[in-house]
Amino acid sequence: MFYEQDWVMRQIKLLVRFIARAVFKKDTAEYKELIEESIAGTDILHRELMLLVSEGRICEAENFLFDNLDKTMRGHLALALDFYERLNNLSDEELEQANFSREEIKDGLNNVLDLFGLDFAREMFS
Questions:
Q1: DSSP letter string over 59-117?
Q2: Which residues contact 25 (CB under 8 A, 6 or more apart)?
C-alpha cells in the first residue's frame, strides 16, 4: 500500500511539474499572488483555498475550486496546479484526517487538465 501511494505521489508531482514547465515555463507550480491577478479575483480564490486546506476541509476546497475555475484564465490553471501540488505534499495522515486520498488528488488534477484542454499530458503519466 505504501509503495502504491508513493508511486501515485510521484506521478502527481511529475504531471504538475510537466504542465508548469510546458505552459508557464517554470520549474514549479507554486502560485504567486500578483496585483494584476487580484483584479480578476484569482488571489482571493487562492486565499480561500489555502484557508480551507489549512482547516482540513479539503473536499470543500476542491468543490470551491471547481465552482470558481474559469478555463479561459491561465491564472486559474496555475492556481489549480498549485492547489493539487500542495495537497500532494500533505502527509498520508493529513489526507486521511481530511477524508481525502492521493487517488482523489490525481483524479482532480486530471479533471483540471481536461477542463483546460491539456488531457494529452494526463495520458503521458497514466
A1: HHHHHHHHHH--TT-HHHHHHHHHHHHHHHTS-HHHHHHTT--HHHHHHHHHHHHHHTT
A2: none
Collapsing DSSP states into helix, strand and coil, what is residue 44? helix
Using DSSP's 3-state secondary structure scheme, residue 48 falls into helix
For 18-66, write each residue's pLDDT tens digit.
787 777 777 666 666 555 544 557 888 998 999 999 999 999 999 999 9
Burial tier of 35 (Cβ tally within 10 Å: 0-12, 13-18, 19+): exposed
Q: What is the rounded CA–CA span in Å between residue 43 and residue 46?
A: 5
Cα–Cα distance for residue pair 66/85, rounded to 1 Å = 16
Alpha-carbon gap, residue 91 to 47, rounded angstroms: 21
